[in-house]
Design goal:
By secondary structure, this protein is α/β, with parallel strands linked by helices. The protein has 14 helices and 15 strands. A hairpin with a 5-residue loop joins β13 and β14.
Length: about 425
């Protein structure tokens, strides 16, 4: 029997635990043999789930990389601003790397990660999970088949979801640019990556962007409201109520995400205490958030082709992307997993099928794209065949540079020129 690919996990939060769960579903393929995590509860939880020996459990990743390399890969799922140092250090030791998106929060750090992986000849897969989502792959297949002719324009929208945005980008870890990053990078870097992916070899030449923090500000705080939802007199009339987002879910037995994020043991008592004393119980109009709650990005590609992207917080749908691809012979319309091709010549509208998700895996996040990402990464490492990876160093770096250019456009209120190497000015 072949040995499984072995891994150390740096950052045992939601995403790290999710990727590591591949080992629980497919122990013959993948095994977690080490963890580095500063939070005791999260660290011990992963240790117990994967039977990791005590001498391979660390409170700081620095201690892990000081040892001789004892696994094939490192899964780096720390907070965004803490990606660069462990990723570079692990590459220098010789670990293949699965790095959660975004690569890093600055252009310099992104370049450093890509350079370290290429210099040390290690495989890098960045968590642009949407490239592995079956409808996204089907759109790419249809474009490359030529059935819609030449692509002229793509419209792509990410509806974040009203309560999801409040959870993650108003009260949560990605609310503040200084402590994390801007929302286009944190939430939508893989959406801009998709536009490059679908356009193929056609290069983006210019980008412009507009957006703002429109709603979640002190001036929009309702009269008579409190600083915390638990003792707010108008809470029942607020769609962003922490009681609705967290407590009501627990009362109905729903203790997974987002409830599992706000406390270690997601029961009524612990969640109530978290809302009384922690950041997730704060009024959304009194937080230290400063990231955009709506943003549009416009792209000009070679040959006069164009694309637009919209990120919007205020939606019922939660991250169910909407895409339209307009070609000279037809169009593709995708609403999450409903995918249609319309042929101009025949006038026929056809619903398109795509790869069905596997059974027996708990990696169902993002329409099972989490599973496909992990499966591709493990196969790439096992066979040393990087063709399994859709998101390697230079490709991912180019997409991130496009995100940085778009945000520069928004802040400076001007069109940004994209150079052939995806540097910008």
């Amino acid at each position: 029997m072949e040995k499984p690919v072995t891994a150390v996990v740096i950052g045992a939060g939601n995403r790290g635990s999710n990727y590591a769960a591949f080992a629980l579903d497919f122990p013959e393929k993948f095994k977690v043999v080490g963890v580095a995590e500063p939070r005791k509860f999260r660290r011990e939880k992963m240790q117990q789930a994967h039977n990791i020996p005590d001498d391979s459990v660390f409170s700081d990743w620095v201690h892990l990389v000081k040892l001789n390399k004892f696994a094939d890969v490192a899964i780096v799922t720390t907070q965004d601003q803490l990606h660069k140092d462990p990723a570079v250090a692990c590459a220098n030791v010789g670990y293949h790397i699965l790095l959660e998106k975004p690569m890093a929060v600055t252009e310099e750090d992104c370049r450093a990660i890509a350079e370290a992986c290429e210099k040390n000849k290690v495989i890098l897969s960045v968590g642009h999970i949407l490239r592995y989502y079956p409808p996204v792959k089907k759109i790419k297949e249809l474009i490359e088949s030529g059935v819609i002719g030449e692509v002229v324009n793509i419209q792509h929208t990410e509806p974040v979801g009203f309560w999801h945005f409040a959870h993650s980008y108003v009260r949560g870890n990605w609310r503040n640019e200084e402590s994390s990053s801007f929302s286009l990078l944190a939430k939508s870097c893989h959406d801009l990556d998709l536009l490059r992916y679908w356009m193929g070899d056609v290069r983006c030449t210019h980008v412009s962007s507009f957006g703002s923090l429109h709603h979640f500000k002190k001036e929009n705080k309702p009269a008579g409201s409190s600083s915390r939802c638990l003792d707010c007199s108008v809470e029942k009339d607020c769609p962003y109520s922490a009681k609705k987002i967290y407590l009501e879910k627990v009362k109905h037995g729903k203790t997974g995400w987002p409830v599992s994020v706000i406390c270690d043991v997601p029961d009524i008592e612990s969640v109530t205490d978290a809302l009384k004393n922690g950041p997730y119980g704060r009024c959304v109009y009194e937080c230290d958030n400063d990231v955009c709650d709506n943003q549009v990005v416009n792209f000009a590609f070679e040959g006069g082709r164009t694309a637009t992207f919209t990120m919007i917080a205020f939606t019922t749908d939660i991250c169910t992307r909407k895409t339209k691809v307009f070609g000279t012979k037809g169009e593709i319309i995708c609403d999450d997993s409903d995918l249609y091709h319309y042929d101009f010549n025949t006038g026929k509208r056809e619903k398109c099928g795509f790869e069905k998700p596997p059974s027996g895996t708990r990696l169902s996040g993002h329409g099972y794209a989490d599973f496909y990402l992990m499966d591709s990464f493990v196969n790439a490492v096992k066979t040393q065949d990087v063709s399994y990876i859709n998101t390697g160093p230079q490709d991912t770096l180019a997409s991130h540079l496009l995100v940085f250019a778009a945000e520069k456009s928004r802040k400076e209120n001007r069109i940004i020129t994209i150079n052939e190497d995806y540097s910008y000015n």
